[in-house]
Specification:
The chain is about 75% helix and about 0% strand. The chain contains two helices and no strands. The protein starts with a helix and ends with a helix.
């Protein structure tokens, strides 16, 4: 690989990384199974409290 090509490929890689960081993230944050169960029980308790009033 000649010097120009190598430098260009390095610069392209850097640009890709920068653009990837700037791009908006559509993926939701991962929530563990235990955390989902905890949230579900809290929501169920709050729904029961509202229903009993």
């Amino acid at each position: 690989m000649n010097r120009k090509k190598k430098i260009n490929s390095i610069l392209k890689k850097r640009l890709k990384k920068i653009n990837a960081k700037v791009a908006p993230v559509n993926k939701t944050k991962y929530i563990s199974k235990a955390e989902r169960a905890k949230l579900e029980t809290e929501q169920a308790l709050s729904n029961d409290a509202i229903a009993s009033e």
